[in-house]
């Protein structure tokens, strides 16, 4: 089991032992050592980028200084979306890509996401190998060496590629609301949409290093929905802090569930003969309504564990080309190796243009089952199998639902939270089961209510 890595890299509060310059320096040293062992006999190149958190400067400098100890050449892209880092790995034929970001987490957090030489996120075995090398590293010196890197305009390469996916001025009669979360997409996404001629209304476009995701972005889409209605926009798009996922609202200000987006992408690709293997890859969190929507067009859904890297891995294994998570991580492997919020926005807009339908019309083509969730912050992640009251409540709910619903209980891979999901054909029994399971969890765990 990984010691430092979670479901999407390493993440924590800046200043904590596992998210500070000293840790980042030792990690950089370990990564350099890992490259020497796994890709010997060549010079090594790494691409580094970050989001707008002020702590990212220190983390990047420390990582780069550590990599330098093994004579790794570092291309520094500075502030760019995470998918731009992945693209730069391929463009530059780099050995690693590193995105310093805590995604949708608050400004006080930071994180480190890693991509291999194929711009894919690392497998757990690779992470464990890196952790072993990290634990062998001595303590960081009190004064870290100065970092040496070479600037890389990865943002321009990324922007030009996304611009090429639709014709210039194709959105000249569109009004679009963009919520940039005061994050890594603050320059790139508006630049792409302006090329297409869209009239833009921007939210979360004034990062100051300390306001990423603060009351804006994919976790807080209320302002987005309100602005879409006020501006009479065709669509609203909200990014998370590093731009690898999105939340969308239609022209009525209604937030469109991520599973509905997945269903639309899968259905229309299936009908066009473009869904490879006839399979849409989703996670265990995705709604049962997604399966029904795909069966209607003779497609299928295959589920994997939570995490976009698990989705991407399964897509590669079975030859699928569309997959994602209900959170808005959506992967189009014909165009990118990882989740990309701007690319997903391109695809939904392209679908609207080709069908001539408003998003409010399209979203009604995928009907989801009632689903209820709750997240409980806990002081300690006790083994789920040992929680007597919780397991009894889960079993009772599952017996009551039979094949008409499901229960999913798991710990977050990046936060000290227990996540509970209940789904069924009717909302009443779903809500009743959720309350029962939450009550049982509170008996077994120390829950923090604030």
Give a written overview of the molecule.
The chain is an alpha/beta fold. The chain has four domains: about 10-155, Alpha-D-Glucose-1,6-Bisphosphate, Chain A, domain 3, CATH 3.40.120; about 175-255, Alpha-D-Glucose-1,6-Bisphosphate, subunit A, domain 3 (Alpha-D-Glucose-1,6-Bisphosphate, Chain A, domain 3); about 255-365, 3-Layer(aba) Sandwich (Alpha-D-Glucose-1,6-Bisphosphate, Chain A, domain 3); about 370-445, Alpha-D-phosphohexomutase, C-terminal domain (TATA-Binding Protein, 2-Layer Sandwich), CATH 3.30.310. Helices cover about 35% and strands about 20% of the residues. The chain has helices spanning about 20-40, 55-70, 80-90, 125-135, 155-165, 190-195, 220-230, 260-270, 290-295, 310-320, 340-355, 360, 390-400, 425-445; strands spanning about 10-15, 45-50, 75-80, 95-100, 110-115, 150, 175-180, 200-205, 235-240, 245-250, 255, 280-285, 300-305, 320-325, 330, 370-375, 405-410, 415-425. A six-stranded mixed β-sheet has the order 1-5-4-2-3-6, sandwiched between helices. The chain has a five-stranded mixed β-sheet with strand order 8-7-9-10-11, with helices on both faces. The protein has a three-stranded antiparallel β-sheet with strand order 16-18-17, with helices on one face. The two termini are about 30 Å apart. About 50% of the residues are buried.
Using brief descriptors, characterize the structure shown.
4 domains, alpha/beta, Alpha-D-Glucose-1,6-Bisphosphate, Chain A, domain 3, single chain, 450 residues, 18 strands, 14 helices, globular
């Amino acid at each position: 089991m990984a010691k430092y890595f979670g479901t999407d890299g390493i993440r924590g509060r800046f200043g904590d032992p596992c998210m500070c310059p000293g840790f980042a320096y030792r990690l950089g040293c370990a990564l350099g050592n890992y490259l020497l062992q796994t890709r010997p006999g060549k010079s090594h190149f790494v691409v580094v980028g970050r989001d707008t958190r002020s702590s990212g400067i220190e983390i990047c400098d420390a990582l780069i200084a550590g990599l330098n100890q093994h004579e790794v050449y570092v291309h520094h892209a500075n502030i760019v979306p995470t998918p731009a880092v992945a693209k730069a790995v391929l463009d530059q034929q780099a050995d690693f890509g590193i995105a310093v970001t805590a995604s949708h987490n608050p400004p006080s957090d930071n994180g480190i996401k890693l991509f291999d030489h194929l711009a894919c996120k690392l497998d757990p075995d690779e992470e464990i190998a890196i952790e072993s090398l990290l634990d062998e590293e001595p303590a960081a010196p009190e004064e870290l060496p100065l970092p040496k890197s070479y600037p890389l305009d990865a943002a321009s390469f990324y922007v030009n590629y996304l611009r090429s996916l639709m014709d210039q001025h194709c959105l000249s009669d569109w009004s679009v609301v963009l919520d940039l979360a005061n994050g890594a997409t603050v320059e790139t996404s508006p630049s792409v949409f302006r090329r297409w001629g869209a009239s833009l209304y921007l939210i979360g476009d004034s990062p100051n290093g300390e306001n990423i995701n603060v009351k804006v972005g994919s976790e807080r889409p209320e302002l987005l929905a309100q602005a879409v209605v006020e501006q009479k926009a065709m669509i609203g798009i909200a990014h998370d802090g590093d731009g690898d996922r999105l939340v969308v609202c239609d022209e009525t200000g209604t937030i469109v569930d991520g599973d509905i987006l997945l269903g639309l992408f899968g259905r229309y690709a299936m009908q066009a003969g473009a869904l490879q293997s006839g399979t849409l890859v989703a996670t265990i969190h995705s709604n049962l309504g997604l399966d029904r929507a795909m069966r209607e067009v003779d497609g299928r859904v295959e589920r994997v564990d939570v995490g976009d890297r698990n989705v991407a891995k399964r897509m590669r294994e079975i030859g699928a080309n569309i997959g994602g998570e209900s959170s808005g991580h959506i992967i189009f492997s014909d165009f990118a190796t990882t989740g990309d919020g701007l690319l997903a926005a391109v695809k939904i807009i392209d679908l609207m243009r080709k069908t001539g339908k408003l998003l409010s019309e399209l979203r009604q083509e995928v009907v989801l089952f009632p689903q209820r969730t709750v997240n409980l912050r806990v002081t300690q992640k006790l083994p789920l199998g040992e929680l007597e009251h919780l397991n009894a409540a889960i079993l009772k709910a599952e017996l009551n639902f039979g094949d008409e619903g499901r229960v999913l209980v798991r710990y977050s891979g990046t936060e000290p939270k227990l996540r509970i999901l209940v789904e069924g054909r009717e909302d009443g029994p779903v809500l009743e089961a959720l309350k029962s399971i939450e009550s049982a969890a509170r008996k077994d765990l120390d829950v923090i209510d604030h």
